Amino acid sequence: MFIDEIHFDAKGLVPVIAQDAKDGTILMLAWANKEALEETVKTGRGTYFSRSRSKLWRKGEESGNIQKVSEILLDCDCDAVIYKVEQIGGIACHTGHRSCFYKTLKGNAWEENSDVLKSPDVMYANHK
């Protein structure tokens, strides 16, 4: 079975990079356990394991910004995964940016490289 080939860490997790399937933008990095990966394969929806909440996290369950997974890739060491996704709503980051990687190092300071597309207060208004 595919899941048996993945090398999970001591906590039973593997890092997952969510990448825009169309333009290749790296949208976010999260973690998945076996259950999250199996659910992603079954449903086609980006599912992760929330380390802070110790439970499955179905991307977009609170923000509405779900991920439709079109392809899953495993690296050569079998210890990292990529979900190629269509980011429904266009926002992957809980800060309201398209990507979680919205800071670029300029000299020795971080500068934002993109605008907030939607205020987190608005995005999560129905879930507080």
Give an account of the 3D structure.
This protein is 11% helix and 35% strand. With 128 residues, it is mostly beta strands. The strands form 3 sheets. A 4-stranded mixed sheet has the order 2-1-6-5, with helices on one face. The chain is globular. The termini are far apart.
Strand-helix topology:
Blueprint: E1 14-20, E2 26-32, H1 34-43, E3 47-50, E4 55-58, E5 67-74, E6 81-87, E7 103-106, E8 109-112, H2 120-123
Parallel strand pairs: 1-6
Antiparallel strand pairs: 1-2, 3-4, 5-6, 7-8
- What is the ordering of alpha helices and beta strands? EEHEEEEEEH
Query: What number of structural domains do the residues give?
Result: 1
Mean pLDDT: 95
Order of strands across the main sheet: 2-1-6-5
CATH-assigned fold name? Ubiquitin-like (UB roll)
Main β-sheet description: 4 strands, mixed
Determine Rg (CA atoms, Å). 15 Å
Count of DSSP-assigned helices: 2
The CATH homologous superfamily is named: Phosphoribosyl-AMP cyclohydrolase
Given helix and strand content, the structural type is mainly beta
Overview in brief:
This protein has 128 residues and is mainly beta. It is built from two helices and eight strands; from the N terminus they run ββαββββββα. It has a four-stranded mixed beta sheet with strand order 2-1-6-5, covered by helices on one side. A two-stranded antiparallel sheet has the order 3-4. A two-stranded antiparallel ribbon has the order 7-8.
List keywords for this structure.
128 residues, mainly beta, Ubiquitin-like (UB roll), two-stranded antiparallel ribbon, 11% helix, globular
